[in-house]
Amino acid sequence: MKVSWKCINKLINLRYITLSQFTQKITEAGFEIEKISNIYSINDLIIELNITSNRLDICNFKGLAKEIRAIFNLKFSDFTIINKSQKIQLNNYALSNNHMLLNQIIGINIITNLQLKSSPIWLIDYLKTYNIKSGHILDDICNYIKIKWNQDIYIFNISKIKHNTIRQILLNLQKNNNLRTNLTIQENNEFADILNYLSKNNQKKKINNCIYHFKKSDWNITKIILININNHHHNCQNYFIDAEQEALVMISTLCKGITGKSYNNYSYSQTQESIISIKKQEINRILGPTKQNNYKFLSTKNIIEILKQANLYILYKNKQFFVKVPKERSQDLKRKIDIIEEISRIHGFKNFIDSMPQKKKRNEGQYKKTVILKKIRQILYNYGLHEAINSSLIQLIDRQKNIKIHNSLSADQSHLRSNLIRGLINNYLYNINQQNDCVELFEIGEVFELKESQAINSRQITHLACILKNNIFTRKYWSEKPYSIDWFHAKGIFEELFEKIEAGIDWIDESMHENQVINETIQDLINFCKPNRRSLLISNETNNIIGMFGELNSKYQQDIKGKDSVYVFEINVNKLIETIQSKKHLEHRMTPYSLYPYVIRDICITLEEKKNIKSIKEIIYKTNSKSIESVKIFNEYFNKSKALRSVGLRIQYREFNKTLNQFDLDEIDKNIQLLLNQL
User: Fold this and answer.
1) CB environment 58-71: b (16+ within 10 A), e (fewer)
2) Is residue 321 part of a domain?
3) Residue limits of the FDX-ACB domain (predicted)?
4) Is residue 593 part of a domain?
5) Are residues 298 and 404 in the same domain?
6) How many Å apart are CA 218 and CA 375, to the nearest integer?
7) pLDDT of 25-67, one tens digit each?
8) Per the structure, how many domains does the chain have?
9) CB 155 within 8 A of CB 146
10) Which among 245, 294, 351, 367 counts the fewest CB atoms within 10 Å?
């Protein structure tokens, strides 16, 4: 669409807006400026705009002027010929602007007593702006209306049409009939083609070649017929009437013609007004804060003003905006997001913050703890365990270990717990008394550790505890009797848990903790288990004891019948998280297997009964780490009288780049002899 800078200034006062400001604002509002041409002969500018297919309501000057007024929030010089609030009377039907959709409307006017002369200079210059050469004044008026209103006006010499034909057309219009009469016009077949086009509504047929053009020498015409037709569903009926009325005013003013009665024919359909409701919260969520007003959201008052500025009808009620969409905007305003886009377009896209909100700094340690606990819960759920939640308030058990609460409600809730296992044991006993033989529970909660017998030095620590008792845990065959959970089954559950969360935990026997410092909390946990049926959990990082696993002492289940074992487990979650080292990539490299054979040497070593074999393996690997491929235990014998044990180890040697020769084997034998002497 081509827009004249002078013409647009006649409708809207752009005196204080430069061309660069105009183009920038229009572009930000969603218009695409293809070209700006300077017409030096008339001192004017032509701006070529690319109008999207869903904004056909601005394909005429008045619609475009309304849009520019809304974008710049300027006063609009209303040049409508008839009053907007006036209802349009057509064939005794009153069409309200808000309830009817005009599918087609035809207007016919007869003008007499014409005094034709040349087109005025302003009209010639106006057409020259759009590269239209001025011709006959009636043709110039038609072109002017087409440019300004995007409306087709057809003017014909009435002297070339039979009187009976005109009379028949007008009678049909008065009876509200469609133009279906077969017309026979002797002198002007083009006019018959146009009327047939109007009667058949044949949109595929091009009528541009059928328009009757006047010659400049046709100055003796005194009587014409003006036909106005609207086939554009997007056009407002006001635009159609305004175009026709302005054409009649121009003919009356420039040609001194007298306009007779107007005859109109139309078809319409009842339409339901589109009302879109949208919450202010949705607007704020999508648009975000503005750069003005200290990065606050648009206020309700601002939103209402913007919507009114966009020529929309607005009602605000119960924190919701009810937007009534005019029918000329029904093509582009259909959803909530369209209304939000209209708000941002009118207010200015650049006035909103175009970056994502800054991420609030969080406590990384606390966040990691939350994620790990969620993962632990999910893993234990998958194993079939049920989560228990017990109160942190308990009755007095040990004055030296439990923190007292002042003004407690009852004696049963007078102190803070120092472990979770005691609560799970109570859950276990309750379930057994209710004849629930399978008890597999876990709890993640806070415990309170008292130091130096003063509550002021106490610590709140997160612990994980489990209790497992299941007499139908597994079976070899479905036809056989099931087996109860045993030590290795229970231990395997927690080993797999540590592996899945990538925690570095080692298991050591209770008898091997001489070099380990055991605090009071861990010592209390150990006392819940049977002697020689418990294991300590140590951290790979600090080598400190952080938890315990073992078989529940029989004294806690004296009233329980049966001999099935019950296993308990508790660990310091804070210390457990410190041992987690997430591997973002594989630490090992892909290497090919050695193509050379290996050599095996079996040795037998005598160790103390409590000596850990892990330390022996470490010593062996240090002797010849490159050649030793593996160290495996293949046998073990105990001498109970001397508290010793003999362990058979199989050492496998292999070189990557050669076959081991006799010299290499002799060296291996010497190393083994030295190793045996050390042990």
Assistant:
1) bbbbbbbbbbbbbb
2) yes
3) 594-679
4) no
5) no
6) 93
7) 878 777 778 888 887 777 778 887 877 777 777 777 777 877 8
8) 5
9) no
10) 294
